[in-house]
Structures are given as C-alpha cells and as structure tokens.
Structures
1.
Amino acid sequence: MAEDSSARPVFDSDPADPLTDRVKVLRGAPEGTRDVRVRFRAGGGLLGRRTVRRDQADSALLTYVGGDEYKQEEVLTLAGVDEFFAEVRARAAEEDAVEAAKNACVHLRCRYCDVRAEYLGTRTWVVGEPTMTGTALRSLSEEAVTQHVYRCPRCGLLELFAEGFLRHPVPEA
Ligand SMILES: [Zn+2]
C-alpha cells in the first residue's frame, strides 16, 4: 500500500534525534494508557537524575498515565526505550491498516453525478422525543449527535457519517 500523505505523527518529536530530551507518544500507546511521556536522563542534579539530550543520556524515564489518571513510572535503558518506541510504531501502523481497510469501503462519489463530494465539516443535531411542556415544545432525553457532512458540488446531495467511526475527511481513493 502506498504511503498515506495524511498519516498522523506517532510522536511529538523524533525519538532518534540526538538533541531530543523528551518525547510524547501521540498514538499507539499501550492499551489502557492515555498518555505516555519519555524523558532522557543522566546522573546528576539535585534529585540524582536530570533530564538531558538523548546523546548525553544513559537511561529513559517513562511516565504512563491511565484513563483514570493513574500514574506509573518505568526506567528503561536506551536500548529498552528504542524497543518501546518500535512497539508504539507497530501499534500505530496496525491502527492505520484497520483505518485504511474501513476507508476503502467508503466511496465519496455522488451516486448521481459521479463527482467527488466535498467535505463540509461537522454539524451537530439534537435528537430526542418531542413533548409538550406548558406551551413550549421541548425534547425529552435529548442527545447531541455529531455528524460529518459531505455534499456533491453539482447536485447538492448530502451524505452524513456519525462521529466515532472513521477519520474525516476520508482521504481520496
Ligand atoms: Zn451529485
């Protein structure tokens, strides 16, 4: 498969860059963790360890934050942290493959005009059972539903996708 030009970064900075002193994992983090930060460290400083550039480091401190704000720390060697980075990349690549397979089912060509539909962004609808309270028409059990909207530039046909399934805009096939 060709490299997707819209591929999202996996890290906020290049973990192999010798001048990098910290790296944040943007996606592909281990299951159950919401946030992982890596700091390169060496001996010295008030607490015995300090954050340094990668090319001066002898270890790495990983801070994992779980969905419930539960925090856990782990110290790895440089070889160990490179293994961790490779695992993160592999997970992110797996997510990309799943996403690409889903996108491959979606054809955003207007069924009447056979031209590519334009992405208009998101719109939010409030849905619920209408009911009369006093003189006002109110809605019970209201729920905001966000939809991604596409429109045929020729005939105006609208297509809607609920939030939470695909990444939008879906790249052109
Ligand atoms: Zn059309």
2.
Amino acid sequence: MPLDKTLLEILACPDDHGDIKYTKKGKKESLKCVKCKRVFEVKDGIPIMLPKDFKEE
Ligand SMILES: [Zn+2]
C-alpha cells in the first residue's frame, strides 16, 4: 500500500521538524528528512518515526 500523500505532508522529522521526503527503492519504502538526512523506515505503509533519543524498554 503506497503511503498517503496527505499523511506525508503533515509528517515532520521528530528531531528538527524538517520536511520529509518519500523515497521508494524496489519494494522498500523510506522517508528522509531533508534537514538532518535521517532516514525513517516504513513498515506496511506506516512510517516509523521516533526521536533519536527514543529507547525501547
Ligand atoms: Zn531531521
């Protein structure tokens, strides 16, 4: 399922609130912050966007 464009417009980098650019390579989708160049994974159409200092406990 392709990522919703409206969703993409409201998304921002969790670290610096920079704009997000959508990229697709083959079947792998990812989002990239144009400011800090951080790449976010997209799993099943859902972007995984967590702040840099986020720790899963
Ligand atoms: Zn960023």
3.
Amino acid sequence: MENQIENLTFPIEGAESCPNCGCSERIGQQIINQLKLEAKLQMSAYAKGLLIKIPLFQALLGPLALKQEVPVIEITFDVCKECKTLYCLKIDLTSQPVEVKRTAFP
Ligand SMILES: [Zn+2]
C-alpha cells in the first residue's frame, strides 16, 4: 500500500486537545479509562482514543486476485468533555486483506 497521497503523508497527526476550547479532557478517553479500571476492557485497548476504520471496498473493482488488500482509512477521534466538539486525533491510511469469493460462471 502506497502510504503517500498527493501532499499527504500518513499518519497525519491531529489535535492533542480540543481545537475549539483547548480542553484536554475527552469523554471517550474517560469512559475507556473507567472500563479499564473495572477490568472490563484490556489495558491495551483504544490506547490512542476512539477508532473508526473505513475499508474502501471500491478498490476491488480492479483485476481480481485470490489475495487482495483494500485500503483502510483509520480515524482516531474523541469528544471534548467541556464543549462536546468531536475532533480528530490522527488519520492513518493502512490496508487489510480481504477474502475474494469467486462466483462460478457456467
Ligand atoms: Zn472543547
């Protein structure tokens, strides 16, 4: 996976505190920390914040191969405890393998 796209080099670091009010306390992080204290979540989980992964399956429109990977945009984000602004902590471009199921044509 090419990790550079026209003037973008990944990972892109985002804000470390709220870009709106400057508060560094995050609601998601607080919930995650509490669940870790209660041993309901592994200590290593969500170390950098909440994470959403978006696989870009359109990439599969290319020539089929038995083992393929699709690009995945990973967005680490959280919500400011003070003003509730949702903001980005990090954006990364990775890839993940997908299983291509071949359809039998007569
Ligand atoms: Zn804020």
4.
Amino acid sequence: MLEIVKTADGSNTIFNPLVGENYHSKHGALQESRHVFVNSGLRCFLDGKARSKSPPIEETSKETAAGTNVSILEVGFGTGLNFLLSADFCVDKGIILDYTGIEAYPLSLEMISQTDYDQYVSSELWQKFIADYERLSISPIELMPRCKLQIANCKLQTFQSDQQYDIIYFDAFAVAHQPEMWNEATISHTIRFLKPGGVFVTYAITGNLKRALKALGCKVEKAPGAPGKREMLRAVKIV
Ligand SMILES: C[S@@+](CC[C@H](N)C(=O)[O-])C[C@H]1O[C@@H](n2cnc3c(N)ncnc32)[C@H](O)[C@@H]1O
C-alpha cells in the first residue's frame, strides 16, 4: 500500500494513499529535510548558543559546537531521514546528540531499507540504524559514539516524558490531511516538551499555528521555506 516515490531533487519519499500525502515535499525530500530541520532547526539553535558565548558567530560556532549537548524531539519519525541527517552532522562536528522520535505508525524495516537514504550519511551510521531499528522502541540505543536514539511508538497526543528538549522537529502530515496534529491542544501538549530557549521548527506556517505558539509564550518567526515553499516557521520558547 505504501509506495516509494522520487521527489524533484532525486531523493525518495513515501506516498501514503490512505492519507493522500507524501512523507516529504515533492520538490525534494533531502533538500526539505536539510533546509527545515538541520539548517533552520539544529544549526540555528547551535549558532544561537555559540553567539550567546562570544562573537563572531562564524568563528565560534565550529569550536563551541564540539562537545555541546543537544536534545531533539521529532514529531513524526517516519523514515528517519531527519534523524539520519542530524546525527551525521552531529557526529561529524563532535556534538553530543540525544534524539527521540515519536511515531504512531512505524514503518517496516523493509520499507526503511528501500528509501536509499544510505547515500546521504556515513555507512557506519546507516548500518547501525538499520541493524537496531526494530529495537529502538524498546529502549534508547547509542547508535554511534555520543549519538543516542529512541523511538516512542505512540501518538503524539499520548506521548509522555519527564524530559524537555532543546529542539522540536514538528514533521506531521499537513493540516489539510491531519488537522488534529495542528490544533491548539496538540501544539500545547508538544510545547510542554520544549526547554525555555528551545527552538520549534516546522515546514508549514499558518495563522492558527502562529497564534497558538504565541499564546504558549513563544516568539514566532517566519523563515525562508525549503525550495517550492515560500516560508516556514521557527519559534523560540521564551522563559
Ligand atoms: C510527514 S510524515 C513524517 C516524515 C518523517 N519525518 C520522515 O522524514 O520520514 C508524518 C509522520 O507522522 C506520523 N504520524 C501520524 N499521526 C501521528 C500521531 N498522532 N502521532 C505521531 N506520529 C504520527 C506518520 O505515521 C508519519 O510517519
């Protein structure tokens, strides 16, 4: 029923006929994941940390990032592309990553293997991810040195944790297909897991989402969208 399809940048995504939507942008799965989550989420958060220590940012970010701890919560883990790209970046830069993915409808290992995402990350990371994928929902696993992953196989709405995260990657299906993921109650539940000063990013931007985030004490910014989309949303939780 699920089908692997190619997007405009040559990278694969999955089409879910029941939902009527792809897991990623048709304009490019890889470029969307890199732009929205790795660059506008993770790298932006790390640059903000570096800037708060000492300028200039371009010189400090590389040095201060190594040894930095960062925790990420992803809503809609799916194929794991956002995790793989983020983990590859963190391992390369010496950043200590603690990543939790929430996924209500986990993909089979066979489906994940068919994405061909091995070509975008180190072979060691890919092999560890594939080898451990089916055990990641039982307990967190250190897939690479200083790079830990756990998948919570539950609906976002029932997810519970004592942990708060530095960054939230909000990668739910679009509001037209899954409005319950974007309503005030669900966004409020999600923001509970964000640390003060933490960053929330998503590929979409709507008036309702902006209002909900502002009411929850977040500073909301429009950022340039991934190719094919004019804008995306980034919000910072104010203390
Ligand atoms: C747009 S896709 C995410 C793509 C994913 N980040 C990737 O890179 O492959 C949305 C994901 O949200 C999951 N999902 C749907 N309803 C959910 C819910 N209530 N709670 C958690 N995950 C949900 C879907 O199964 C799907 O994997």
